[in-house]
Amino acid sequence: MIIDTTEVQDINSFSRLEFLKEVYGIIWVLIPIFTPVLGITIGVLVIVWLEREISAGLQQRIGPEYAGPLGVLQALADGAKLLFKENLLPSRGETRLFSIGPSIAVISILLSYSVVPFGYRLVLADLNIGVFLWIAISSIAPIGLLMSGYGSNNKYSFLGGLRAAAQSISYEIPLTLCVLSISLLSNSSSTVDIVEAQSKYGFGGWNLWRQPIGFIIFLISSLAECERLPFDLPEAEEELVAGYQTEYSGIKFGLFYVASYLNLLVSSLFVTVLYLGGWNISIPNIFGSELFDFEINKRYGIFGATISIFITLAKTYLFLFIPITTRWTLPRLRMDQLLNLGWKFLLPISLGNLLLTTSFQLFSL
Amino acid sequence: MIVNMGPHHPSMHGVLRLIVTLDGEDVIDCEPILGYLHRGMEKIAENRTIIQYLPYVTRWDYLATMFTEAITVNGPEQLGNIQVPKRASYIRIIMLELSRIASHLLWLGPFMADIGAQTPFFYIFRERELIYDLFEAATGMRMMHNYFRIGGVAADLPHGWIDKCLDFCDYFLIGISEYQKLITRNPIFLERVEGVGIIGTEEVINWGLSGPMLRASGIQWDLRKVDHYECYDEFDWEVQWQKEGDSLARYLVRIGEMTESIKIIQQALEGIPGGPYENLEIRYFDRERNPQWNDFEYRFISKKPSPTFELPKLELYGRVEAPKGELGIFLMGDQSGFPWRWKIRPPGFINLQILPQLVKRMKLADIMTILGSIDIIMGEVDR
């Protein structure tokens, strides 16, 4: 008489040990999801604070100073205020589209965080297609903007939504081509592999030096994707009041606000991963000591993991200085000039960049 | 699609309503609707003496207040053929040119904010605060100074004001070069502004425009040189003009005018008759008071109007070169303290007429650029 294994499992599942194992399994799946989410939320708070301090410095004034020490809780205060505001729905607009629009914009960006590596084994999903997941999913965001613009029953919002969608679509192609060049250099699209490929020569192994044109195009395209100045015509205050965000109030407006900064954070993280060497310390091994070995993370366990996270975040936030300063310095591009720039200028250059990279790869083989 | 850029608008152009007919992103037609700030200034003038009316005039163009006061006293002065002493004339010129700089600065801030760069807005207020401080020391008020009087100014410059003003001039020249570096050679700015809103030389004269719009289209017409009013002939300065007639030309004309104003101010400060430390007002107070006005009849009676300047029964059109254009009044006197008719010719009102024609065939984003470069202020457009 053979005891059926499923029956054995069923009987075993009633014992306490099995139950605990299941709970343990569930927790072990949920913790890696919630930890990055928590980290991202705090990261967005830091970005908001950083932006206000830097813009205040540029404009010769003091940034936030009342909400928390040095004003660090300002973003939380803004979020709490938005939570308590009245949630308006336009009376003759499409209520369903109106409500779902901002959510789609936020969800698509949050999903992209799953492929960002913070350390050697610290990535939510080490997929083979890595970076392309980000590009593909962030292309869903314009749908959310169009939904918001149309559902508001307001000509300004509609115009703004259309502009936003057109802008997003036009700047995705140079972005994709730059990422393609990077994948060529690292022989893989997985983000972990891309960072590993940059770890050889410390500071000099960064993709920044191997792809300078690609870096500049990536920078411009990601600014355009995030709809920050100099590309923020969809929400240009003077012309369209607030573009597709006009009719929103309360936490839905807060979602747009958060989506903008989430997008900025994920773009900066990808710049760090693709061009600035990811989690590597990047100090070349000139001292001869083993302490500064770049494989530190593999060897030193938790300490190495902490250092990797810290380095990734440090590089990201140091890079963030550039988009924030650009926003407060440059004027805005007009819509047709913006589209001209995307299609007629960046696209040919990024194609040329790809061609150069391919030919170098072929010749070096 | 008809879009209404309503009287409430995030950019600082005042209460102007534009009904814009769009075809996608192109503008087909634009209809401005005025009157949201109409306060009946001309009618009020018929019941006020000049001294009583002076606080009203600063509310026409509330960013370049000295010019409105200047035209209000210049009109009756020309009617009554009153001479203005030299020192008062120099003080007036200094105040007028400082006000011109202040007005151009506050034109530059919203213009750049419309184009998208929000930081110059803070920088111009930094400089404008310095001008406010100078004005407050001399006149008592930061913006709505009640300073000009018929025959001169209300009070003399305080002790040490001239040195402070010279310091301001030196500081401001550095500020202007900072703006040149940040803005004038910025390729995004040039793309937004070059070739936008071109007005030809013939058109400018036909429409009756004035001020920087006229000078940006190739016509060297500056009322300070044409009319020879106040003491502008004694200083050495050039008329700023450009040839193209687009928004970039108007921007360059205004920046150039700011530099020229600094030159005029520096020359006036150095050449002011009576010297920097002579306060003629003190001398006036040392004289014996006029016994007639201290008589019994004139004490404790509040409703009797103070003896005022009587406007003779003549009519006159006087004009000054305000920073926004030619500000003029047409004054018909009645042999009494009150004028019979006080018509204001505001530069913003006349300059705004050309807006519908300029924005046809332009994109939606250009409307704000063109509106900004015309430099209107609704206080004087609507009065």
From TrEMBL, chain B:
GO CC annotation: chloroplast thylakoid membrane
Domain of life: Eukaryota
UniProt keywords, alphabetically: Chloroplast, Membrane, NAD, NADP, Plastid, Plastoquinone, Quinone, Thylakoid, Translocase, Transport
Domain NADH-quinone oxidoreductase subunit D per the UniProt entry, residue ranges: 114-383
GO molecular function, one term: quinone binding
InterPro entries: NADH_Q_OxRdtase_suD, NADH_UbQ_OxRdtase_49kDa_CS, NDH1_su_D/H, NiFe-Hase_large
Record keyword Oxidoreductase present: no
Family matches, as Pfam families: Complex1_49kDa (PF00346)
Family: Belongs to the complex I 49 kDa subunit family.
Protein name: NAD(P)H dehydrogenase subunit H
Native source species: Rhamnella rubrinervis
